[in-house]
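thought: fold this chain, then report.
action: predict
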Amino acid sequence: MEEGKIKNTITRSFELQDYRIKGTELSGFWADLLSKEELTVEVNYRPENEKVFSPAETEVLIREVCGKCNSFEAQLPENIKCEVTFKDFGEKVYKTAQPDFELKPEEMDEVKVAYRFYVAYYV
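observation:
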């Protein structure tokens, strides 16, 4: 997309491989265009070679998911934003570049997240 371009509608999503994170496999993937201004993409991450994520691996995965959201938003027109809801952590929401975002990592067999892309303001 052109840098700095502004749009009032969401016309596409990123591809499946864009949501992949090294050391994980996708055990679920759903995209739902709620309106022309809002798209949600739900992704379930499982450990690639083990039964569970250790607390340290969960922490790394949380940081990777937040980084993905930042990367996605950087590729979008400036008025389209990205946020991520961590479904296994009380629906806590990360908004891009949020410096104080913290979750208490624990051992988990799967981490479920929902990326939300939305038009933040209109031009």
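thought: worth noting. The chain has one helix and five strands.
final: tokens above.
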